[in-house]
Design goal:
Length: about 300
């Protein structure tokens, strides 16, 4: 029979709310509703006393977790720690890591999606004091840098930076046609989304402001490689802004040619956050591979 266990809050976990702490420690093995019931009925104890779900924890506190059987609630995805596929880490230090996300891999699971960046993080960092947690997301078909925090303090700091627009983000994208805007052009639109999560469709003309600065890196007869510095972070922003100007991202079946085949050529190339500047060359080959001059010009957009 399963037994109760007592775990100690580490420095990396300090500051979390009790409910968050338990969800991360249990890595999806117990549904939130069950954890809330444990807390409400006093089965969870902190330093032998009762706490509320949103009380914050401090380093060194002892948390009692009642007996449970992993996966006994069939509504919870099983085996997340055993998902197939490797996860490439582009950068890592004591507080932060950057995942090299490939096109086609979802950032988060759900809606029948078992394999994801978060699932692979759980597998790779099983047993960590604080499970690395993504601070933002990329569309499933977009490749590139994804930042994750390795402590709750680092996660809060990154969340604050993203909310304040203080994270620099530069993408590279191949688009159909010749880009006609001048280099450094500021794209300004209003955008709003509709539809169920995972099936959102975004349109321009009303909603929230969307700003991006765009420079052409390579111009060819029927396609252009662009460097895009995001100044806001709306859903599908780059894809919608470029498509609305007659230059959809190559391979974008939602906003471009819905009969298109092959990868979507949109890549989060460089980020600047919390005193770090990171870059990741896209894994494109052949005619799609950008040369070093183009990548240097893209990186320079971070500092404009």
């Amino acid at each position: 029979m399963p037994e109760a266990q007592t775990v100690v809050v580490t420095r990396a976990e300090s500051g979390q709310k009790l409910l968050q702490f338990l969800e991360r420690r249990l890595t999806g093995e117990v549904p939130r509703s069950a954890i809330q019931k444990w807390i409400r009925t006093g089965q969870v104890r902190v330093d032998k006393g009762r706490k509320k779900p949103f009380d914050r924890l401090a380093e060194g506190q002892a948390v009692r977790i009642p007996p449970y059987t992993p996966g006994e609630d069939k509504s919870v995805p099983l085996g997340l720690g055993e998902q197939p596929g490797r996860l490439v880490i582009a950068f890592e230090d004591d507080e932060l890591l950057a995942v090299a996300k490939p096109a086609g891999l979802a950032a988060h699971g759900g809606d029948g999606v078992d394999d994801s960046v978060t699932a692979r993080l759980k597998a790779k960092y099983a047993g960590a004091d604080f499970m690395p947690t993504l601070a933002h997301r990329l569309d499933r078909d977009t490749s590139g840098l994804l930042l994750a925090a390795k402590s709750y303090e680092a996660l809060r700091r990154l969340n604050d930076l993203f909310a304040a627009g203080k994270v620099g983000k530069v993408y590279v994208a191949w688009v159909d046609g010749r880009w006609s805007e001048p280099d450094g052009a500021l794209l300004r639109d209003t955008m709003e989304k509709s539809g169920a999560p995972g099936r959102e469709k975004v349109r321009t003309g009303s909603g929230k402001d969307a700003l991006a600065r765009v420079t052409s890196l390579v111009r060819e007869k029927d396609r252009t490689l662009l460097g895009v510095r995001l100044l806001t972070g709306r859903t599908h922003q780059i894809r919608v802004q470029l498509a609305s100007r007659g230059n959809p991202v190559v391979g974008d079946r939602k906003y471009g040619d819905n009969k298109s085949r092959g990868l979507m050529r949109l890549h989060c190339y460089a980020m600047q956050a919390d005193g770090r500047t990171l870059s990741l060359k896209p894994a494109w080959t052949g005619k799609w591979a950008p040369d070093e001059d183009a990548l240097r010009a893209a990186l320079a957009l971070l500092f404009d």
